[in-house]
């Protein structure tokens, strides 16, 4: 009888040990999956942030070109003033130069406003992408925690 009880106890002990080792394996797999999902989510966010920054940089470069072009045009008009040989030519050139400078200033302002808007949109896109990644990371970790808890419950039930 003692041998039967000892054999049953041994089988029960082996079953319990097997159940306990299975639980961490499932939990480990779930955590590895969560880590992978979190890494993917962050990589996607980083890519979107880089794209948004690139868009902002392009917008600023375009604005700088527009501003330089507008100023060059105004400078040409101002140069005509110096070449004037009569007071009337000088007066007309001065008027043209002032108008050209006013247009250049407006173009420069508009170009910078456009670039600033693009930068703001890029920052918002980056923030949205990061928030999405953070949410996905939390969800992945919650899934891993739930699977781990379920595995522990299953292991306890098997004991």
UniProtKB/TrEMBL annotation:
Sorted UniProt keywords: Signal
Signal peptide: 1-19
Residue ranges of the region described as Disordered: 18-159
Name recorded for this polypeptide: Colicin import membrane protein
Chain intervals with Basic and acidic residues compositional bias: 48-123, 132-159
